[in-house]
Amino acid sequence: MFHKILIANRGEIAVRIIRACKELGIRSVAVYSEADRDSMHARLADESVCIGPAAGAQSYLNIAAIMAAAELTDAQAIHPGYGFLAENAEFAEIVIESGLTWIGPSPESMRIMGDKVSAKQKMEVAGVPLVPGSDGAVSDIEEAKAIARKAGFPVIVKASAGGGGRGMKVVHSEAALPNAFSMCKNEAGAAFGDDTVFIEKFLEEPRHIEVQVLGDTHGNIVHLFERECSMQRNNQKVLEEAPSPFVDEETREKLCAAGVAAARAVNYVGAGTIEFLMNPDKSFYFIEMNTRIQVEHPVTEWITGVDLIEWQIRVAAGEELAFRQSDIKKKGHAIECRINAEHPFRFTPSPGTIELYHAPGGRSVRVDSFVYTGYRIPPHYDSMIGKIITHARDRQKCIRRMQRAIDELVILGVTTNQELHQRLLANPGFQKADFNIHFLERWLSQMHL
Ligand code: ADP
User: Fold this and answer.
1) Distance 281 CA to ligand 1 centre (A)
2) pTM of the entire structure?
3) Environment class of 253 (CB within 10 Å of its CB; exposed 0-12, middle 13-18, buried 19+)
4) Is the Cβ–Cβ distance between 93 and 82 less than 8 Å?
5) Number of domains observed in the structure of the chain
6) Do 299 and 241 touch, CB atoms closer than 8 A?
7) pLDDT of residue 167
8) Which of 211, 230, 287, 290 to mutate to test the pocket of ligand 1 (most atoms within 8 A of CB)?
9) Does the residue 313 lie in any domain?
10) How many whole angstroms from 361 Cα to the centroid of ligand 1?
11) Distance from Cα 92 to the centre of ligand 1, integer Å
């Protein structure tokens, strides 16, 4: 096992990883930007190194500075968390070539899955269902038209290198296709340095359901069931739950087997997530794989009892998974609410000083955060300041527990999305689990504020 790990990240995920290191008896090294001097991750780690100015490009994305910090502190391994460099295969390669351990999958798995066109081609060979559309990259408008006609409108034009909800355009008619196609291509070229695009049928009422997988270097790959992530705004998840209230046992078995097949196709090592869209008739299609830990991993941890960060570290150190698929059971229901420092309905960010912070507690409530009374939320990063996770015997009890946990939360000094969660949790459509990926935005657009 490692004696020291450097965490190339900030915020709640850095704190989460430091906690796992402490519990494993591993020393932790935090890196922080000048704007994060007072951040909890820099305080909790055994050692902390400043890696540059506030701007992400000069600090948390600065590979040279991070590698220098690893050398300076004699760290043996690097955990990238999520976001920033977590899905950067080149960074993983540099870490490995420097003689350190990358806590994540191989750069090769990351490269295949990081490119949506190559990922889909790999999945097709592995027999994982794909959204109908182009077989690969679409290079000209005539080809685009032919594919769209065959799939039927509406279609979605997607950038192969896209991510984080960017680089996608929904097209409702053939007349609108040429413009959307060239816009998507140009934007992809400018944003990702790769203008490869492809076309999929736009599914009108799907749910976003994803499968958590875990692989080791001994060829074992298991799934840890699914998560329901349909509550999204701007393709950003707001609330997640496990298991999905929509998935029955028969579908679950097929879905999770597809997740394992997808991971096996790229010899996956570590924790990863296969994202699917599921139609009302429960047919499902692969959309992408995230080759890292996800924000919403705690809901899976709670229903399975498996510590995903601990296992990311253990398999990176060469350990074999201590459980087989048949040993993994799910128990009860878990929900996660993302707490963002932003207006609950207009979504304008609200950085500033937290004048008072009181976290909820009590039975089966988990809070993963990095804020405290007096903490100044810097304006430079993501607005997510923490997550509240609850667990209970069934979904209804879990919702009630989350309602009382959200009500207990006190954050003064900055605006948060607490009220959005309060209203959403009380919404009859949410309570009946009668929703799809458009639910939240449709509901918000009908709200008279
Ligand atoms: P990203 O890598 O940017 O997250 P994804 O391919 O995972 O992109 O898609 C993000 C979201 O966009 C999905 O969760 C879903 O809400 C929507 N989406 C993507 N593909 C389709 C599709 N074919 N039909 C309908 N919605 C889609």
Assistant:
1) 18
2) 0.96
3) exposed
4) no
5) 3
6) yes
7) 86
8) 287
9) yes
10) 35
11) 26
Instruction: Point out the catalytic residue in the list 111, 292, 338, 401.
Output: 292
Atom of ligand 1 nearest to the CA of 166: 3
Of 29-33, 118-122, 134-138, least confident by mean pLDDT is: 134-138
CB 335, CB 303: distance < 8 Å: no
- Whichever domain contains 72, its CATH number is 3.40.50.20
Distance 249 CA to ligand 1 centre (A): 25
Average pLDDT over every residue of 261-279: 98
Host domain of residue 65: 4-98
Torsion angles phi and psi, residue 86, rounded to 5? -60, -30
Active site (annotated) includes residue 233: no
pLDDT (0 to 100) of residue 251: 98
**Domain presence at residue 127:** no
pLDDT, position 448: 67
Ligand 1 pocket by Cβ (under 6 Å):
131, 156, 162-166, 200, 202-203, 206, 208, 232, 235, 275, 277, 287-288, 437
Quick check: is 296 in a domain?
Answer: yes
**Whole-number Å distance between alpha carbons of 60 and 66:** 8
Closest ligand 1 atom number to CA of residue 206? 25
H-only helix segments in 140-224: 141-151, 177-192
Q: Is residue 112 part of a domain?
A: no
* Identity of the amino acid at 218: H
Asked if residue 10 lies in contact with residue 60, where contact means CB atoms within 8 angstroms, the answer is yes
Q: How many CB atoms lie within 10 A of CB 352?
A: 15
